[in-house]
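Quick entry, no commentary yet.
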Amino acid sequence: MTKELKAVEGLQVTDFALKENGVPQKICALAHHRQPISVGILLDTSWSMRGVQSDLFALAKAGINRFLDASGPEDEYFLEYVNSWPAMKCIFSCDLSHIRAGLQVEPRGESALIDAI
């Protein structure tokens, strides 16, 4: 992974050093198989996320955006809002711009996290 949390593609055996008890070992093979993932995101959009001393909602959105930044092209997500009642905002999609657009919401209502789950 890079510092930006992106998967590094095209690594070769020569990119690694393996030691056992300080003794260099030969690496015979290297394989990388990235599998697409399907992830459901439940975003608490209730008033409680506004926070008194910190904006918990902004932190949640930043965390989701960071997670999406590490996505592969075949990864898919859905986004569901959780406030007074659960509401599906985005059905499963590989279109990250669609999911990110769904993050542009203002907190309101009570929390119904258990109902959403």
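second:
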Amino acid sequence: MANINKTIIKGNLTRDPELKSTNTGTYLCTFSVAVNSYQGKDKEDYVSFFDCTAWGKRAEVMSKYLAKGKPVIIEGNLRQQRWEDADGKSRSKVVIYVDNFEFAGGKPDDNNASTGNAVQDDFHGEPATGEFPEPFNDDIPF
């Protein structure tokens, strides 16, 4: 049986995305998403926090149009990062590497967007002009 590593979450950003560049000029964007889970009237709800990383043009678009508190749908795969801390102890965490994303709360506004030039929209091959797909509709019957 083949292994499967696919994750889909819908939640709100807990902080503004951070755009960085590698030594080779590839962009990466890191952010965190909070996902609320409703357990029912007799059980306590809980929140899970997920660290996410996006690369390339997708990272540029996400850093420009997403901001703290904005809802987003993330599709990606899980990767475990391992390192040793300053005391020599082994540490690890699991991060979602973003394959795709959707704006989940309507059109993003430019008031919270990072500054910068227009970037290629990774999803349509056209410059990002402020026109975005309709938000995800949970009422679709399939």
